[in-house]
From TrEMBL:
Keywords, alphabetical: Membrane, Transmembrane, Transmembrane helix
Keyword Transcription applies: no
InterPro entries cross-referenced by the UniProt entry: YhfC (IPR011397)
Descriptive protein name: Putative membrane peptidase
Pfam families given in the database record: YhfC
Transmembrane spans: 6-29, 41-64, 76-103, 123-143, 176-201, 208-230, 236-256
Amino acid sequence: MNRVPFLSIIFMVISAFAGFLIPIVLCIYFRKKKRADIPPFFVGCFIFLLFSMILETLIHRVVFSSAVGTGIRNNVILYAIYGGLMAAVFEEFGRLFAFNIILKKYRDKNINALMYGAGHGGFEAAAVLGFTMISNLMLAMMINSGRIESLLGTLSGGTLTQLQTSISILTLSSPYIFLLGIVERICAVAIQISLSVLVWFSVKSNKSLFVTALLIHFIVDAITVFLAGIHMHAVIIEAALVIIATVLAVFAGKVYRKNMVNLM
């Protein structure tokens, strides 16, 4: 069996650290430099955990255990639409709940919208990048030590296929691929902060911005799921994310500045 390249392992370690470092740096920055309150950050973490990782995941389990779910999985367009829709609905209504109920007394400081987004997107970075890379590192160690063979012998069916796929990715991918996750998470956090700004001001002054956030989130996630589904090269997907994140950040910045003026 092929071994996982040493450089791939190094890059996985770097990416794992980055996944946990991103939320910490953002929290410190918005607190120390922008005087944001701390609670919105942790509320952002909680809302992502509850609405995305728990509630949305429960719906996925129900849907994909049915014949309808099988049909969705086998059609890349339907899967992209479904994935984009679920992510948009759960995360944006989670933000709406947070800003209307939990963070009501913190709405006097608009910088708290960015602090919330740092928590929401930062927790996602830790979960998606940090813990995924730790899992990859553990599997890589098993592969390189020769212990993976005994594990493969105990598995069968879909579980065996999934593990074999993971092994192939780790052993055959170019090492730089494991650094692209950092770019992806930085873009994702920028998008999450931008969407938080839109929903924040939809609660405070312009309700139509919530619909805008829903549509943007749906489109962004649907595009990325579709590109992954047609096996587009990772570099192209990340380039698309950079463009999307930049455009959305500029738009959210304009909304933020406009509403800051209107609220004065």
